[in-house]
Amino acid sequence: MNILDKIIFDKQREVVLKKSIIPVSQLENSVFFGRETISLSQKLRTSSTGIIAEHKRRSPSKSVINHSFTVEEVVKGYENAGACGISVLTDGKYFGGSLDDLLLARASVNIPLLRKEFIVDEYQILEAKAFGADLILLIAAVLTREEIKSLSEFAKKLGLEVLLEVHNQEELEKSIMPTLDMIGVNNRNLKTFEVSLDFSKQLASQIPDDFVKVSESGISSIEAISELRPYGYSGFLIGENFMKTDNAGKAATEFINNLKA
């Protein structure tokens, strides 16, 4: 069983437990459930930088990245830096995140928030909406085409956008459907954790222009973005590069300013 299989196994058990504790009606009555969401895809289409900055405390591959910031400090720093959107990891066991991180982020900024999570059930999409997310992530590697279809349709009914993450052509081919807004290519192999921008380059021409193209993971330099732009990418998800510094907001500001220069 690889790390991804373990995460999904644990996630399915976690969802069953949460469903038994917090009823759907409680999620639907939350303060944020009725709010109008902000479109990340529209922002990326018109942005000159396309940066989606990530709040991430740790990961299975890197262990602890940073525990010294508060969520509010990080996300306000990202918003002030000019990020198009913010990705908030909410998985607890493997990434040290929580839905409270999403809630605090929503209370602190007014730009699109992605709930970065291993979604396997509609219940998690209701949680995303209830805790202030504007979009969700679906990972093609762990979902069937039917699951991607039903989960993305459910998200759209709630007014949430959908970022679909793929790693190879097989995942991309099974996933393309009109209920997606953005297609992200993860440059990290989730089974080996090897990182290469070639993943994004190889798949770029296979992604229809109807979708905003996003490149995720392993982007740590202006040069990497310059390399990927000619392939049609307008979104770039950056996490560890900012989070591993002493001041994530300052690091993001410097990066985005250099990108504009």
From TrEMBL:
Superkingdom of this protein's organism: Bacteria
GO biological-process terms attached to the record: L-tryptophan biosynthetic process
CDD domains with a match to the protein in the record: IGPS
Gene3D superfamilies the UniProt entry points to: Aldolase class I
Catalytic activity: 1-(2-carboxyphenylamino)-1-deoxy-D-ribulose 5-phosphate + H(+) = (1S,2R)-1-C-(indol-3-yl)glycerol 3-phosphate + CO2 + H2O
Enzyme Commission designation: 4.1.1.48
Keywords: Amino-acid biosynthesis, Aromatic amino acid biosynthesis, Decarboxylase, Lyase, Tryptophan biosynthesis
SUPFAM superfamilies linked to this entry: Ribulose-phoshate binding barrel
Indole-3-glycerol phosphate synthase domain span: 4-254
Any GO MF annotation of the entry: indole-3-glycerol-phosphate synthase activity
Pathway(s) the chain acts in: Amino-acid biosynthesis; L-tryptophan biosynthesis; L-tryptophan from chorismate: step 4/5
Family statement drawn from the similarity comment of this UniProt entry: Belongs to the TrpC family.
Name of the protein in its database record: Indole-3-glycerol phosphate synthase
Organism: Flavobacterium pectinovorum
Gene, per the UniProt record: trpC
